[in-house]
Design a protein that fits this description.
Layout (H helix, E strand, L loop, with lengths): L1 H34 L3 H8 L2 H33 L4
Helix pairs in contact: 1-3
Length: 85
């Protein structure tokens, strides 16, 4: 029963992450429509080299963090299917 409850908690985390991702996509699309350039082009034109690398690192960390709840959810679901003895 505890595994089912934890799965539902992880689903809420995935849902909240999806909402944040949709907001960021919406803002990036508005930026592209209003300027004619995408986000990485504008960051390249506006920021110095060190800031660009920092933004790139933050984007990579965000992708990794976004994948963690999906991996945990999958691991939690498969744990109940297979018995390790």
């Amino acid at each position: 029963m505890l595994a089912v409850y934890n799965s539902f908690q992880l689903l809420w985390v995935v849902l909240i992450g999806l909402v944040f991702a949709l907001i960021i996509q919406y803002l990036a699309a508005n930026l592209g429509v209003s300027t004619g350039k995408h986000l990485s082009e504008l960051c390249k034109a506006e920021y110095p080299k060190l800031v660009k690398y920092y933004l790139w690192l933050l984007a990579e960390i965000a992708v990794i963090v976004a994948d963690i709840p999906d991996g945990l959810l999958h691991a939690n679901r498969t744990q109940g299917q297979y018995k390790y003895t």
